[in-house]
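step: validate -> pass
step: tokenize input -> pass
step: predict -> running
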Amino acid sequence: MSAVAQKPPQTTYSEVPFSYKNPNKSYAPILALGEERNLILVTSKDETSGKIFAIKRLLSFSQARNPQIRQVPHENVVTIREMMLHENFIFIVYEKMRICLADIIALPIEIDEHHVATICTEVLKGLQHMHEVLNLRHGAITRTSILFSEDGVVKIGNFDQALWREIHSDTASDIKALQTVVQSLRLVWSENAHVFLRDMCEKSARALLKSNFLAQSPGPRSLEPHVLFATITANMPWRFCRTIVSKSA
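step: predict -> pass
step: emit ->
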């Protein structure tokens, strides 16, 4: 008796909540980060957990007037909590991450190949999810869009423009951008690493995840010391703020 083929599980999408409300009504600002102060750490006024979120403030554009943004939660893609359009600004509320890859690169320590393999594995899993499930091309993979939580979990962030961009046949551009980032992490590479870097010129995220080079990854928790060290030494400009909407906060 032949086995009955099982259908793959259906992907469940959820729309990102969107409103025209003033973010100051729902969130209490703590700190404004960066030179432009367009990234604001906040707590929700509707929750008592004290959990911190990050709000990114962007200038509005026509596609954002009535967006229908879908997302499927994934461990390697930063989760969007909600979006608001207010006073010609788009406010995107994200889960808060600890640091970015640029902070780790700035450390006075060498990044070992097995750590590079870990970072690549996690980012490629996130890109595979974006390309195949969300039908999105990121379009801006850089040292600052690869983010880390306190326990070393690696997630892709800074995909604001990707939310309004249809996927193109050149999703390979995301892989090539990751290749550029990876090449900047070390000066000396093993033969397995050279093969992996060459493969990044022509293979998809799914295919690259089968690479022998990635087999040496000990998992994201191995990055915890780097995240802790980078958190202590990172020097992003910040200031206390009392409002989310005003750019002069």
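step: describe -> The chain has two domains: 14-95, 99-231.
step: cleanup -> pass
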